[in-house]
Amino acid sequence: MNQSTRAYERLREEIVDWELAPGTHLSEVRLAERLGVSRTPLRQALHQLAGDRLVRMVPGRGAFVMEIALEDVRHLFQLREALETHAARLCARARAPHRTGFRELEREFRERHTALAEAATAARIDDYYALAQRLDEQTDRVAGNPHLASAVHSLRTQLRRLRRIARRTPERLLRSAEEHALICGAIADGDERRAAELTAAHIDNSLRNILEALADDVGRTDPTATQVY
C-alpha cells in the first residue's frame, strides 16, 4: 500500500468514526508527521477525501473536516432511497437459490433485535452494525449491478459517519433491526414491491431520527435549520 492510500484510508476512518470532528483543521505538517508520510501523498489523500465530501479545501487556509448540514443529510437520504430501493427490487427479482441468504439474515436480525432489547451494550451494537454490513454485501452480490454497487459504496462512506448519532438512540436501533428483518424476509419471498416499500420506509425512519438528533444538538426544534456541525 502506497503512502497516499495509507493516509487516505487512515484519515477516512478517523473522520467516519468522529476521531476527527467536523470543522477540524487538517494541518498538513502535523498530519504528515503523525501518519509518517510526506506532504505530497498527504495532499493527494486530502484531495481524494474532498472528492468523497469528507473534507473541504479552503484556498489560503488549508483542509478542514467537512461539516454536516441538515440539507446535505436530506440529499444523501434522497439518493440512498433511489439506489437502495432499486437494489432491493433486483434482489427480490433474482432466482430463488440466490435469495436464500436473505432468509438467514432475517433470522439473524431477529436475534440481534432480541439481544438489543435485553441490553444495548456497545458490543451488541457493534454486532448489529456488522450484520448490517453483511446485508449490504449480500445485496450488492445478489443485485448483480456493479455500477449500482459502486454508487452505493460511495454513499455508504458518508452514511457511516452518521451512525454516531443513531448510537445515541437505542430504541431506533431496535426498530431498525426489525425493519431490516422485514426487508430480508420480503426479498427472500421474492416480493420486490414489498421489499422496495419496506426499504423506503426504513430509510425514511432513519432520516427522521437523524434530523431530530441533529436539531437537538444545536438546541433547535426546527428541523429546517441548515448548519449543525
Overview of this protein structure:
With 229 residues, the chain is mainly α. The protein has helices spanning 3-16, 28-35, 39-51, 70-93, 96-118, 122-143, 146-161, 163-166, 170-189, 192-217; strands at residues 25-26, 55-58, 62-65. A three-stranded antiparallel β-sheet has the order 1-3-2. A hairpin with a 3-residue loop joins strand 2 (55-58) and strand 3 (62-65). Helix 4 (70-93) crosses helix 6 (122-143), helix 4 packs antiparallel against helix 7 and helix 5 (96-118) packs antiparallel against helix 9. The longest helix is centred in the last third of the chain and has 26 residues, at 192-217. The protein is globular, with a radius of gyration of 19 Å.
